[in-house]
Amino acid sequence: MGYLKSTPNTEGFFGEYGGADLPPPLVPHFKEITDAYLRLSKSADFIAELRYIRKHFQGRPTPVSHLKNLSDLCGGAQIYAKREDLNHTGAHKLNHCMAEGLLAKYMGKKKLMAETGAGQHGVALATAAAYFGLECEIHMGEIDIAKEAPNVTRMKLLGATVVPVGFGGRSLKEAVDSCFQSYVSQADTALFAIGSVVGPHPFPRMVRDFQHVIGVEAREQFLEMTGELPDMVAACVGGGSNAMGLFSGFIEDKDVALYGVEPLGTSSKLGEHAATITYGEDGDIHGFRTIVLKDAEGNPAPVHTVASGLDYPGVGPEHAHLHRTGRVTYTAASDTEALDAFYKLSRHEGIIPALESAHAVAFAIREAKAHPGKSILINLSGRGDKDIDYVTETYGFGE
């Protein structure tokens, strides 16, 4: 049996990581979600409707672009990008949000709920709610609301209720905490549409499977463009949904090296980065076991990155597993490197990337020089419309 069909196991474990450690009141609700997903993911009607949505609403397939100018600038490897920035709403998030909305519709739910960091998941879920005629409640940290104002406006225009989260670090972890608290009293009628390959089972598997379309398309497109598979495949990793979407298309191609790029922030000092796999240790967060950045008391540590969507002290359990098995190599890019990549891609390719995606671009820029004659495929997981005000007001327009 292939990797994707055998992993995770029936309890939601990827090796030692994953599972579902839930408050007793939520156990039956997550079982309901699991049972519905396992049934519907094999349903021809569900699959046909999802394929129709992806083609006629989302605009899939998104293309792979050869970043020729950036490749020439760097020297060495040829750089390619899977263009999830061209997916409707501007990022990969809609791939699982439309699927989660469709799941909610089939389950008879009336409302979609979620956390969001950069706001892309929030926008995508608000879009899905509008499409399916559902209510929508989005929890977002106050710091991220200020940084990602355009996405807050979009969510409200789409009809979502945006709940500001003002406790703790006022960022993504706290948004998850807040949404879980709100969901407990609404679980009969609402679906908590977790925004990444994190959370209790079945979400790490379910979101990966819904994002698998990225890898399937990219593998086929790259073969058609070049006649061979890429030598290196890379994506940014916060929770890790865009990365698992891309990696899943190449996971069984042993000659393709896979790289996850974490946010190194401003330094390796605890609280100044969000490089969970690079500096974390085994632990539990939000109802599942994974690798976690911990403070001196063993609690999830404060984190920092210029990219709000990567601002999480944990990581998807499948990423922890792939790190442990060695199938994926995890590295990091700093705020400075990500900003440099943001400006370079904008100036030399006419593509303004999301700050999250700019971490993957930074990896490609860094690695290209050392790998002449090779090819690097990155996931351009989102576009930078949401970031342009923050970047230009804080850092200017680059050189």
Automatic annotation (TrEMBL):
One of this protein's Pfam families, by short name?
A: PALP
Q: Which molecular function term from Gene Ontology is one that the record holds?
A: tryptophan synthase activity
Q: Which domain of life is it from?
A: Bacteria
Q: Which cofactor does it need?
A: pyridoxal 5'-phosphate
Give the pathway.
Amino-acid biosynthesis; L-tryptophan biosynthesis; L-tryptophan from chorismate: step 5/5
What the entry lists under InterPro entries is as follows: Trp_synth_b_CS, Trp_synth_beta, Trp_synth_beta/beta-like, TrpB-like_PALP, TrpB-like_PALP_sf
Reactions catalysed according to its record: (1S,2R)-1-C-(indol-3-yl)glycerol 3-phosphate + L-serine = D-glyceraldehyde 3-phosphate + L-tryptophan + H2O
Q: Which SUPFAM superfamilies match?
A: Tryptophan synthase beta subunit-like PLP-dependent enzymes (SSF53686)
Query: Do you know which CDD domains this protein is assigned to?
Result: Trp-synth_B
Which residues are listed as membrane-spanning? none
Coiled coil location: none
Q: What is its EC number?
A: 4.2.1.20
Using the record, list the residue span of the signal peptide; answer none if the entry has no such feature.
Answer: none
Q: Which keywords does the record carry?
A: Amino-acid biosynthesis, Aromatic amino acid biosynthesis, Lyase, Pyridoxal phosphate, Tryptophan biosynthesis
Give the sites modified to N6-(pyridoxal phosphate)lysine: K93
Q: Show where the Tryptophan synthase beta chain-like PALP domain sits.
A: 59-382
Q: Which family does it belong to?
A: Belongs to the TrpB family.
Database matches in NCBIfam families: trpB
Query: What is this protein for, i.e. what is its function?
Result: The beta subunit is responsible for the synthesis of L-tryptophan from indole and L-serine.
Q: How does it assemble?
A: Tetramer of two alpha and two beta chains.
- Identify this protein by name: Tryptophan synthase beta chain
